[in-house]
C-alpha cells in the first residue's frame, strides 16, 4: 500500500450556544475557533482521517508542505514516517505547536489507515484496552450548567477562572454538586496571574478540595510553576500549549504538575501522547488530555489513547457545543453515565461528512481583542494587552 495524496479540510467552528445549558463563560471564542481535519489517501482505496490544532489555518500550510514527503510512502510505517516528518522540519527550528499540530493530524490518520487495513480499532494495535469506558469532565459556570452535566452522569466539572478571582462561584458549584463530584479550576490567561497572586489564590482554593488547579501562571516560565509547587497544597495541572514528549519533559521530570494535559491535536500524535503518559506514570502524574477547543476527530483519537494507558484520569469534553460539531463527522459520540465508550469500528472509528464541512468556510483564526468588562483584565486595561497582570482589588476576593 502506498500514500497517494493528502487533503486538508478547514472548518470555521462557531461559538458554543448561548443557552441556559451552554458553557456561558466559554461561549465566545472571539472569532478564532477553527478545526483542521486531514485525510490521507492510498492506492488501495483506504483513507485515514486525523485532526490538527495549534493555529489550524497555519498548520494547514505545514501539512500541505509535508505531503510531498508522504506521497509514495508505505502508510503502515508510522514511527518511521513520523521521524521523517520531524527531521524534515528541523531546518526551520525547534518544533513548536504548528509543527506538532501537523505531526499530530498526519500520524492520527496513519493509525486510522492501519486499523482499517487490519480490521481492528486503533486501541487494539496499541496493546489492547485497559478500560472500555473513558470518564469525562465538562465545563460549568452556573448551577444550571452543573446540574445539566450531573444529569448526564458527569462526576467531574471544571470552571473558568481566567482574570477573575471568583471564590463565590466555586463555593456555589460545590454546594450545587455536593462532595461526590470533583471540581477543577482553569485559571489560564490572558492576562496571567503573577506567581504571588497565583499562590495566594491557590491557598484559598485548598478549602474546596479541587481535583486540580490548571495553568495558573504563564506557560513560558516553568520556574514560576515550580515556585507555586512549593507553596500550595492543591494539585496542579498544565501542558496544553506544549507539543511532543520533548516539550512536556520538563513538566514531568521536574515534578511540576500532578496532571499533565497535552492537547490531542498538537501533542505530536498518538504515539507521542502515549510516550508522554509513559514518562508521567513513574512520577505519579496522571494524563488528562486537553480538548477545550478541539473538534470531534481528535476526541476519537483521545479515547484510543486513554483506553491503553494506565494513568488516564479524565478526558475534557465540551458537552454542549456549537451545533455544527454534531454534523461534520459520523458517528457522534454520546456520554453514557459520565463516560464515553471506546470506539469498536476499525481504525479511529470516525469519518468526515464533507458536505457539511463545506458549509463552514474559514474566515478568521485569530482572536479579536477581549471586551473590557473586567473578566480577562483589570477594568480599563484590556487594550493594553499585557501578558501578566497583578490582580488589583484582590483583597475583596480573598476570604477573610
Automatic annotation (TrEMBL):
UniProt KW keywords: Lyase
Keyword Nucleotide-binding: no
Domain Mandelate racemase/muconate lactonizing enzyme C-terminal: 139-235
PROSITE patterns in UniProt: MR_MLE_1
Superkingdom field: Bacteria
Transit peptide found in the keyword field: no
Record protein name field: Mandelate racemase/muconate lactonizing enzyme family protein
Native source species: Psychromarinibacter halotolerans
Amino acid at each position: 500500500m502506498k500514500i497517494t495524496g493528502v487533503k486538508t479540510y478547514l472548518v470555521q467552528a462557531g461559538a458554543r450556544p448561548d443557552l441556559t445549558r451552554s458553557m456561558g463563560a466559554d461561549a465566545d471564542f472571539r472569532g478564532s475557533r477553527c478545526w483542521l481535519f486531514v485525510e490521507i489517501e492510498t492506492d488501495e482505496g483506504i483513507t485515514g482521517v486525523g485532526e490538527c490544532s495549534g493555529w489550524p489555518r497555519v498548520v494547514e500550510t505545514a501539512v500541505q508542505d509535508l505531503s510531498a514527503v508522504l506521497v509514495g510512502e508505505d502508510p503502515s510505517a508510522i514511527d518511521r514516517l513520523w521521524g521523517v516528518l520531524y527531521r524534515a522540519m528541523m531546518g526551520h527550528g525547534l518544533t513548536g505547536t504548528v509543527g506538532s499540530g501537523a505531526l499530530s493530524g498526519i500520524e492520527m490518520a496513519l493509525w486510522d489507515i492501519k486499523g482499517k487495513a487490519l480490521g481492528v480499532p486503533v486501541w487494539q494495535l496499541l496493546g489492547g484496552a485497559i478500560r472500555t469506558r473513558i470518564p469525562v469532565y465538562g465545563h460549568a459556570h452556573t448551577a444550571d450548567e452543573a446540574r445539566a452535566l450531573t444529569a448526564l452522569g458527569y462526576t467531574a466539572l471544571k470552571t473558568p477562572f481566567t482574570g477573575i478571582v471568583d471564590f463565590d462561584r466555586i463555593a456555589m458549584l460545590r454546594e450545587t454538586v455536593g462532595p461526590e463530584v470533583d471540581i477543577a479550576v482553569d485559571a489560564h490567561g490572558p492576562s496571567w496571574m503573577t506567581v504571588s497572586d497565583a499562590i495566594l489564590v491557590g491557598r484559598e482554593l485548598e478549602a474546596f478540595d479541587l481535583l486540580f488547579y490548571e495553568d495558573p501562571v504563564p506557560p513560558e516560565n516553568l520556574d514560576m510553576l515550580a515556585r507555586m509547587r512549593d507553596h500550595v497544597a492543591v494539585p496542579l495541572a498544565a501542558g496544553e500549549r506544549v507539543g511532543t514528549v520533548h516539550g512536556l519533559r520538563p513538566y514531568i521530570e521536574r515534578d511540576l504538575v500532578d496532571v499533565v494535559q497535552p492537547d490531542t491535536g498538537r501533542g505530536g500524535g498518538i504515539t507521542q501522547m502515549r510516550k508522554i503518559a509513559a514518562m508521567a506514570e513513574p512520577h505519579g502524574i496522571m494524563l488528562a488530555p486537553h480538548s477545550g477547543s478541539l473538534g470531534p476527530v481528535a476526541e476519537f483519537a483521545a479515547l484510543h489513547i486513554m483506553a491503553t494507558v494506565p494513568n488516564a484520569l479524565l478526558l475534557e469534553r465540551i458537552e454542549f457545543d456549537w451545533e455544527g460539531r454534531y454534523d461534520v463527522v459520523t458517528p457522534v459520540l454520546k456520554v453514557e453515565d459520565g463516560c464515553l465508550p471506546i470506539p469498536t469500528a476499525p481504525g479511529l472509528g470516525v469519518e468526515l461528512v464533507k458536505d457539511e464541512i463545506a458549509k463552514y468556510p474559514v474566515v478568521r483564526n485569530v482572536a479579536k481583542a477581549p471586551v473590557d468588562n473586567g473578566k480577562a483584565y483589570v477594568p480599563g486595561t484590556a487594550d493594553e494587552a499585557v501578558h501578566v497582570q497583578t490582580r488589583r482589588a484582590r483583597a475583596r476576593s480573598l476570604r477573610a
